[in-house]
Amino acid sequence: MKKNIPAIIGLVIISLLIITALLAPLLAPYNPTDQNLYQRLQPPGSQHLLGQDSLGRDVFTRIIYGARVSLKVGIITVSISLIIGISLGLTAGYIGGIADEVIMRICDIFLAFPGILLAIALMSIMEPSLNNVIIALSIMGWVGYARLVRGQTLSLKESEFVTAARSLGAGHLRIMLRHILPNLLAPVIVEATFGMGGVVVAEAGLSFLGLGTQPPTPSWGTMLNEGRKFLLIAPHLTTFPGLAIMIVVLGLNFLGDGIRDIFDPQKRR
Amino acid sequence: MRRYIIKRGVLLIPVIMGVVTFVFLLIHLIPGDPVDMMLGETAQQADREMLRTRLGLNDPIHLQYYKFIKGIVRGDLGDSIHYNRPVLEIIIDRFPATLELTLGAIVIAILISIPVGIIAAARQYSIFDNSSMLLALLGISMPNFWLGPLLIIVFSIKLGWLPVSGMGGLTYLILPSVTLGTSMAAILSRMTRSSLLEVIRKDYITTARAKGLSELVIMVKHALTNALLPIVTIIGLQFGALLSGSIITEMIFSWPGIGRLTIQAIITRDYPLVQGCVLFIALCYVMVNLLTDLLYVFIDPRIRLSE
């Protein structure tokens, strides 16, 4: 990690995101929903660092509060996806047979929906809200982890330490949770780091389409959607929220690359 | 080869059935009454009953499922509530636009990524290599719903070179294709580079070099052809990402394709159309994945022989 500059940059970016999200009320100069209709669509200036939106709200403040939405969606969604994915992947890989077949065929069905199409389809029948976005993205997100965990479990269950544990009388659940699970966590952590970037983009994408977080909650995707209407006269409304998304995703990609290098130095090129 | 195709085809049946079942259930998973959701709670009772009958919602669920599958087999995806036309007809009208955009994005991605990947691999750790790979990482991290508006600001509003939105000649295609193709270009450049780096360490490349062949011939004729396999796979796999990405890109550029149609159908609560669009996009994706698999076998005879 010491020499891995991109990974350090990634770690700094994500740490800043977490600090920003946690300390939003202290860091933000204004209230994110305070309107000032006399100062609509003002460009960046000394009073309002990143300008004001169509309702005169401070863009900088809303970006700071938007970090909360992104982080919340990212952490909760990835956690739910991980719980489902690891449970099903472990079961499929360890038990094998019909359980494996059924779980993998279900995975295949979910994978037949490209990108965020499944989330879009689910959001079409749910009320657009932050919680529903988390549900939709979790339903979509577990598949990758399940397949990864299954693959790892298949090879790990043939390992000597698993045979040793079994010969010592360890039960299946104990072998799965105490012996196999800790040994497959490294690639899962790498995948989860990249996955979180995907979730941040997906949430913003759904909000951009009007299917996600709803105004006045300050989400970066919602801000981009609002900014789209004022591209001609207020391009700053589009530039800054998008920049925030890109920096966070870049940070997660850097961090993911870095963690992978630590766990698997051979892959470094 | 034929056995492989049949095997892949058979494996696809449960996936397609699963997709069809999910799409069928979509309307039944709506919390509360789907008719309320479509018409609003203030709608007249007579209108609600009419829509319920039209959608077959009064039938028992297994009968609805049977009719749904029978309809799909016959190419009947029902009628759109909003357009009052058969769903499949509307989708077929809009599909060429999505296809044009997707192909445009693939062409742009290939034109950028293959030369960049080759040069980056040939000059590993050079300034070009480092900067192009950093740019590629930026390209992957840049969401298309941000890149699109940025391109509009620069090339349409500030410079006035290209149209802001809509569909027409080639000039209308450029910005949406770049928006959609950038992340694919980024992924492909990285893939081309790493795939080539793996190949150029092989003995036959050393032999080619010892024979006195030029670097260009070695790279393109000897290395690239052997590094093509993962590249083709990525192009195939990325097609799905493009189909999904086209939903957002079409919304940004008011491109009259299936993606925009899907979102408009969601906004107008036109569920038969939503079902049709989701089903159509998913089936296209499944078919492209199958074709990629077959192409993979075609390119690499080792897979064919191991079957």
Describe the structure.
The complex is a heterodimer of chains A (269) and B (307). Helices cover 71% and strands 0% of the residues of chain A. Chain A has ten helices and no strands. The model of chain A has no long low-confidence stretch (mean pLDDT 91). Chain B has 307 residues and is mostly helical. Chain B has a domain at 91-299: MetI-like fold, CATH 1.10.3720. Chain B is 79% helix and 0% strand. Chain B contains 13 helices and no strands. The longest helix of chain B has 38 residues, at 215-252. The termini of chain B are close together. Chains A and B meet through helix 4, helix 5, helix 8, helix 9 and helix 10 of A and helix 1, helix 6, helix 7, helix 10 and helix 11 of B.
Low-confidence stretches of chain B: none
Q: Treating each run of at least 4 consecutive H or I residues as one helix, how many helices of chain A? A: 10
| SSE succession of chain B | HHHHHHHHHHHHH
Please tell me the overall pLDDT of chain B: 88
Helix content of chain B: over 70%
Low-confidence stretches of chain A: none
SS content category of chain B: mainly alpha
Secondary structure category of chain A = mainly alpha
CATH topology of the domain at 91-299 in chain B: MetI-like fold
* Secondary structure tally: strands of chain A: 0
**Largest interface by Cβ-Cβ < 8 Å:** A-B, 43 and 50 residues
Task: Quote the beta fraction of chain A.
Answer: under 5%
Offer a quick outline of the entry.
The complex is a heterodimer of chains A (269) and B (307). Chain A is an all-alpha fold. Chain A has ten helices and no strands.
Question: What is the fold's blueprint, element by element?
Answer:
The complex is a heterodimer of chains A (269) and B (307).
Chain A: H1 5-22, H2 24-27, H3 59-95, H4 97-111, H5 117-125, H6 130-156, H7 160-167, H8 172-208, H9 220-228, H10 236-263
Chain B: H1 2-28, H2 34-39, H3 45-55, H4 61-73, H5 87-122, H6 127-141, H7 144-158, H8 170-199, H9 203-210, H10 215-252, H11 258-267, H12 271-299, H13 301-306
